[in-house]
Amino acid sequence: MIYFISDAHLGSLLIPDPREHENKLVQLLSTMKLDATAIYLMGDIFDFWFEYKTVIPKGYARLFGKIAELTDAGIEVHFFIGNHDLWTFGYFEKELGMKVHYKPELVELYGKRFFLAHGDGLSTGDTGFSILRKIFHSRFAQQLFALLPPYIGQKLGFAWSRQNRLNMKSEEFQGEENERLIIFAKEFIETEKVDYLVFGHRHIDLKLQLRYSAEMIILGDFIKLFSYGAFDGNEFHLLYFET
User: Fold this and answer.
1) Which domains, ranges and CATH numbers included, belong to the chain?
2) pLDDT of 55-80, one tens digit each?
3) DSSP single-letter state for residue 94
4) Do the beta carbons of residue 240 and residue 225 sit within 8 Å?
5) What one-character DSSP code corresponds to residue 111?
6) HSE-up of 229 (CA within 13 Å, CB side)?
7) Under 8 Å CB-to-CB from 94, ≥6 apart: which residues?
8) Is the dihedral of CA 20, 154, 89, 81 positive or negative?
9) Do β-strands 236-240 and 99-101 pair in parallel, antiparallel, or remain unpaired?
10) What is the C-alpha separation between 154 and 57, in angstroms, rounded?
11) Residue pLDDT, tens place only, 78-120
């Protein structure tokens, strides 16, 4: 079984009990361990992550311990950067054994072709967001931010993330003609043969059949929906975790 999960936003200032939230994700990963061949963390697992050269952000010990346990057991754990946790510079690979992806990927899983991406920056149509995204991905901007003492940088980062979440437009489904990821997916399959397109980012749970037998999935989130994806080689399932 191959599993997919996105948008946990661990550490968010909007989550009442961060420890309980992290523990719930760890419980899900423990369940996945029973039959997983690979686990894909599809972005925004952390509400804010900036990895300093000699300082690792406080917290997430239980999650990191579980991920190390999974990779030590031979289970592949893939991490796609999101728009909240893009500033990772080697810790995940070297210490936890994860495979980090900095851009969308075309991969073959159980003989099926997948297009995998967090979803930010794909056919956004939002000039302001596009400019901000370029700044966040700029090596120069990252180096400037790294000059801040970690306690200031972390405080600013989580405050920005909180405000960004509060300013978000509706997370309700906007209809096929208005959902930018759906527009992107429909355009993409006109030039590329894939069986599945899997995204996070939008915080909605969606399975949509497209042309050419392609299926699009938006994974939901692990904040309110507690949804995740599972592919058994024949069918992609959207599931919901309950403790």
Assistant:
1) 2-240 (3.60.21.10)
2) 888 889 999 999 999 999 999 999 99
3) H
4) yes
5) T
6) 31
7) none
8) positive
9) unpaired
10) 8
11) 999 999 998 999 999 999 999 999 999 999 999 999 999 999 9
